[in-house]
Amino acid sequence: MTEAYIIDTVRTPRGIGKMGKGALSQMHPEHLSAAVLAALRDRNGFDTADVDDVIWGVSAALGLQAGDIGRMAALDAGYDVRAGGVTLNRFCGSSITSTSFAAAMIKSGMSDLMVSGGMDMLSYANMMGMKMREAGVGSAGMGAGNPRLQAKHPQSNQGICADAIAAMEGITREQLEELGVESQRRAARAIAEGRFAKSTIAVKDDEGNVILDHEEYPRPDTTLESLAQLKPAFEMFFNMPSEPGGKTFAELINQVYPDVEIKPIHHVGISSGVVDGASAILLASKDYAEKHGLKPRARIVAMAETGDCPTLMLNGPVPAARKALAKAGLTKDDIDTWEVNEAFAVVVEKFIRDLDLDRAKVNPNGGAIALGHPIAGTGAILIGTALDELERTGGRYGLITMCAAGGMAPAIIIERI
Fold first, then answer.
1. Which of 109, 127, 170, 301 is the most buried if burial means most Cβ atoms within 10 Å?
2. 92 is a catalytic site residue
3. Per-position b or e across 261-299, b if 16+ CB within 10 A of its CB
4. 161 is an active site residue
5. Locate the Thiolase N-terminal domain: which residues (predicted)?
6. Could you read off the pLDDT of 252-308 as tens digits, one per residue?
7. Catalytic: which of 31, 153, 267, 373?
8. Is 403 a catalytic residue?
9. Residues 269 and 1: beta-carbon distance below 8 Å
10. Res. 142: pLDDT tops 80
């Protein structure tokens, strides 16, 4: 089997995901995607006619974010028309999956040069969602308004799922707030030391003016005292009907887990930030890289996907990580850095506890609580962050995973070379 190598990773800074407030919020989603695709080409000088496919992740596929952004953004970035493009959706896990698919094509021998990545502009997606509600079009939820599916697998609000998991695991709000403050502290240190500089590009407008060249979301002055003052963010949904005349969001979870007493604890300080962002990864076979003078930075060691309880929705990362480790023939002790998406603090806290990990190795440069979570763009960002950290510290293996809506999780292991 042919090895698949990561040649380079690039990403945008994450902009605040609120229309009119975030620096990226006025961009067309295809422009944001094109920015990282163009940067990947310009930094590495590959012939885009050789790209077998651009596999792109988008989660909120509506309006300007609908259609095949993978293809359209590649064309907008000036790629040769012979470079294909396809767009997929595994919700939050989309760009880990797009990278796994790209690596699999190379490993199979069917492709030599691939680009993976993804994006979401939550400023735009949330604006579209508001317009739909104003027009009387209610949210269909993760199950697309399918009552038969909802009867089989009740799917609730993700924040309430996070609160339910905390209750089931005996994890307190105070413990999660410690994780939230640490995420902010680590992110601030990473930014101050330039740890993100290698992978981050400046986003420019059509005239070449810089729109955003730094992380826009972090709150480095966050303290335990300030977090203690915040109100739970999802309490309003507990007794809200999930559909007209239907069960409340809390009742959907208690339908499957009747003994769980759910208490609202997650708030904005221990949940992922709402942001805009995009990321891209260049992958190549060994033969192609050698022939064209591309220097690999990492090898794709193993990829895994798993499903878990869709009602709790967020518990997939642990089994996905175990599955990837088994495929790689590695143990947790072989992993030098872990990137586990901070969708909610409880996801990472449970992951650390279940695998009995050294906390210093998990999200050493902060995570989505401090930096934000551009949904389908996050996975490739985390892969790049893990690779940069391995190069900085001289580590060998990195494992990247994240929960995804519907009770899923992809995972990928990379080796620095």
1. 301
2. yes
3. ebebbbbbbbbbbbbbbbbbbbbbbeebbeebebebbbb
4. no
5. 5-235
6. 999 999 999 999 999 999 999 999 999 999 999 999 999 999 999 999 999 999 999
7. 373
8. yes
9. no
10. no
